[in-house]
Amino acid sequence: MAPLDLLDLDVPLGDDERQIRSVVRRLVDERVRPYVADWYAEGRVPARELAVEFGALGLLGMHLTGYGCAGASATAYGLACLELEAGDSGVRSLVSVQGSLAMYAIWRYGSEEQKQRWLPAMAAGEAIGCFGLTEPDHGSDPASMATRARRDGTDWLLTGGKMWITNAPVADLAVIWARTEDRVRGFVVPMDTPGVTAREIRNKMSLRASATGEIVLADVRLPADAVLPDAAGLGAPLSCLTEARFGIVWGALGAARDCLHATLDYAVEREQFGRPIAGFQLTQAKLADMAVELQKGYLLAVHLGRLAEAGRLRPEQVSVGKLNNVREALAIARQCRTILGANGISGEYPVMRHANNLESVLTYEGTSEIHQLIVGQRLTGLSAFA
């Protein structure tokens, strides 16, 4: 029995959603799972090759409509994220940043010319995007960003830096958020623009199968039409983060499921004291608790997906999903490691890799503490951010 079969959780899914899940699962089994341990060990990922393959299957910006995007349901997109992260969090991050951050920002806030120029190529995986919001000194507090954009005639000059930017070392364009004289604005910045430098961040202990970088902007001159015309204030980038968090709600379950699946197989085969360790009460108690949390997280994700499809999903509801599912996924990965014993730290098993990756997932797109404050504000009506 697979870890998600306990409560027959396929029941609320449509045939098209099951089909999309099967296609992505097969892709991960063939194209990611056999190689990802080596990618992780070597600190690399064939991002451009994967982007083209993902684009051919319609996975990039799959929940968006038009411009070569698949127009899939929110739940179908979530299921795809789950299967991708069952392979590796870094691989799902490639898809999430491309579709839910860079593409979504252009799709939601861009001009028709910007959409026509970039979105079809990005949907096909021919152009890779990144999303420049986080800064070296401003992570959880984007309102304090130091990156500035000032007018110079009809042009804009951008100065500043962005940090921990997924896809930056391999990107063709960046959506950069900067403070202007009146508000925060978004800019579409081709990465070959003079003054733009991307430096890959090395020596990561987490998300090693992902290209992460720093972007330096040194008086980058952009034409007037580089501005996202419909992005007014900080609410625009924050709405993009909500899009990305929805995928994380699902994706974290994939990492947890892969850990639990590997641990179940191991516990049935591994013998100590003359019998399989799966037959011991303490092991079964751990497995039962993990399976229950996985089921609960999945039901939460499906519920949020249906709310999104009905146009009723609110940001604090996504925060509930991100807070719960990532926290529980990390707890599952750590508990699985205890069942595998010393083998739990071996690269021959996926558990430690998933656990390390989930440490990053716990932090990006809003730390657990940030989401607790978002939920707390909803509960009390009082902001505790300042």
UniProtKB/TrEMBL annotation:
Q: What are the residue boundaries of the Acyl-CoA oxidase/dehydrogenase middle domain, all occurrences included?
A: 130-220
The cofactors named for this UniProt entry are: FAD
- Any idea where the Acyl-CoA dehydrogenase/oxidase C-terminal domain is? 233-379
Q: Return the InterPro entries for the record.
A: Acyl-CoA_Oxase/DH_mid-dom (IPR006091), Acyl-CoA_Oxase/DH_mid-dom_sf (IPR046373), AcylCo_DH-like_C (IPR036250), AcylCo_DH/oxidase_C (IPR009075), AcylCoA_DH/ox_N (IPR013786), AcylCoA_DH/ox_N_sf (IPR037069), AcylCoA_DH/oxidase_NM_dom_sf (IPR009100), Glutaryl-CoA_DH_mitochondrial (IPR052033)
Enumerate the Gene3D superfamilies for this protein.
Acyl-CoA dehydrogenase/oxidase, N-terminal domain (1.10.540.10), Butyryl-CoA Dehydrogenase, subunit A, domain 2 (2.40.110.10), Butyryl-CoA Dehydrogenase, subunit A, domain 3 (1.20.140.10)
| Alphabetically ordered keywords of this record | FAD, Flavoprotein, Oxidoreductase, Transit peptide
Enumerate the spans annotated as Acyl-CoA dehydrogenase/oxidase N-terminal domain. Answer: 15-126
Q: Does the keyword tRNA-binding apply?
A: no
Instruction: State the family named in the UniProt similarity comment for this chain.
Output: Belongs to the acyl-CoA dehydrogenase family.
Q: What is this protein called?
A: Acyl-CoA dehydrogenase family protein
**What taxonomic ancestry is recorded?**
Bacteria, Bacillati, Actinomycetota, Actinomycetes, Micromonosporales
